[in-house]
Every structure is written in C-alpha cells, then in structure tokens.
Design goal:
It is built from two helices and 17 strands. The strands form five sheets. A four-stranded antiparallel sheet has the order 5-2-3-8, with no helix packed on it. A four-stranded antiparallel sheet has the order 9-6-7-12, with no helix packed on it. The chain has a four-stranded antiparallel sheet with strand order 13-10-11-16, with no helix packed on it.
Length: 262
C-alpha cells in the first residue's frame, strides 16, 4: 500500500487507515511530508488483509466502520493512538463468528457528522439513508450496531458513504448497467431497515461500483449526460432488435436474388 501527500496539514493533521479485517491506524501526516519518487510505505498489512479507506482526521473526528453484514462501529479519533508509518494498527471493529457463512469484514469507513446521513447500498441494488444521530459512539474495537438489516434477497452491503441532500451518485452493476441517482430520492429509514430498490438487477448480476459525483464542481461540458444517453440508446436499440426478430439473410449471389423475385 503506497500513499503520497503534500501541502498544509491544517486542522486534520492525521491519516486514519481502515482495513478489511477491522484494523485502524492513525499516523501524523507530517510523517509523509518527504515523499520519494516511488512513494512511501504507509501501513503494514497482515496476510489476507487489504486497505479499504483512508480518512483525514483529528482527535475530535468521529469515524464509522461499516461491515458487509450491515453493522457500524462508531468511535472518535482520540481513541486511536498515533503510530508510525510502518505500524499495522489496532482493532477498530470486531465481527461476529459467522460459522458456515461468509466471513464479515469492513467495506467502508466514513467521517461521521451529525446533521448528515449515511447512505448504504447492497449487492442487489437496494439502498437507504439513515441519520448519523441514530448511531451512538460505542467505542473502538466493538461489533457496533445494526446499520442495515441483512437478508439474502437484498444481499450484503456493497458500499456505504456520507451524503448530503444535494449529492448525486453513479451506480454500476457487474453487467455494465449504469444509473445516476439523486440522493434526495433515496428513502430515509431507520437503522434496522433493509432499504428500497434503487437499481433493478438480474438474478445473476450484482452491484460493482458506486461513485459520489462532485455535482457542484462539474463542468457544463461534463460527459456524464453523454454516458446516460449512450446507455439509454443502447437499451432502446436492443429492445428494437428483440421486437423485430432475426432479420432474413441477404442473398449471396445475383442468381439467388433473381430466384427470390416474384
């Protein structure tokens, strides 16, 4: 894992690293000030672990770790001691023993700000918003509280992020299907709700990626609308082809063409 940084560290002088296995590590940004051309090692990962998210924080920042099976652990930056660049970190979230099932793990880490909301989207295209005020700080290293009720129909949590009312999302499925979603149109529900359908997916398809759009700074010439138009045109063309059926093959020779004349 390599990270590069430069500039004023301001009011958020730390980086917080969060891994799939629930480890977190806080390191002063100053330790990354002198960066070599090939970068610096930012964190040591144990075998089988991987980096999920990096946040700029201070000691008063509240962090939320969200797991695949829909739990959120909330704690403050001051509960994580500052460590060196090559440290592996400490336990940020603990998982239930899911014998016989997929192993749980962190899928997202967010900075919690009361007054804003957490958006959760599942593998099968279901999503919801929940006010951050519903998630109490239980301390670092716990299993957290339910953030989205898991069931097989809606799937595990694919991604989660902090959102505002005016934000927009681009949601893409593994099949290549893509939609654009206005956050204000996503239902606000409680912690234990499972969400509503945002994207209709085939049985063998699932969510691949979710991106938060920088709508306020988007260029008027942004190609996002072009992407949507291309998707719509492709779907319309496919629908027309299905409606028309298979076209008759064209004659290969002049003789064959004459034979087909009445």
């Amino acid at each position: 894992t390599i990270i590069q940084t430069k500039g004023d560290f301001g009011t958020h002088p730390f980086l917080l690293f969060a891994t799939k296995k629930g480890k977190v590590k806080k390191t002063e940004l100053a330790q990354y000030e002198s960066v070599r051309k090939n970068g610096l090692r930012a964190i040591n990962l144990v075998e089988g672990d991987e980096l999920v998210e990096v946040l700029r924080i201070n000691d008063n920042t509240h962090i939320g770790l969200i797991s695949r099976f829909g739990r959120l652990a909330r704690f403050s930056g001051e509960q994580v001691r500052s460590m060196g660049r090559t440290a592996a970190g400490v336990r940020g979230m603990r998982f239930k023993d899911l014998a016989g099932e997929d192993i749980d793990g962190v899928v997202a880490a967010v900075e919690i700000s009361d007054g804003e909301q957490l958006l959760v989207i599942t593998e099968k295209g279901y999503g919801k918003r929940t006010d951050f005020s519903e998630f109490g700080a239980k301390g670092r290293g716990g299993m957290g509280v339910v953030a989205a009720k898991y069931n097989q129909e809606r799937g595990r949590v694919a991604d989660a992020m902090r959102v505002g009312e005016d934000d927009e999302l681009m949601v893409m499925a593994q099949s290549g299907k893509l939609i654009r979603v206005q956050v204000k149109n996503v239902s606000v529900q409680g912690r234990t709700a499972s969400g509503v359908r945002l994207m209709k997916l085939d049985e063998d398809d699932q969510l691949a990626s979710v991106a938060l759009l920088d709508v306020l700074h988007a260029s008027p010439d942004s190609n996002l609308n072009e992407v949507e138009e291309e998707v719509e045109e492709t779907e319309e063309a496919e629908a027309e082809e299905e409606a028309e059926g298979e076209p008759e093959p064209e004659p290969e020779t002049v003789a064959e063409a004459q034979d087909e004349l009445p």
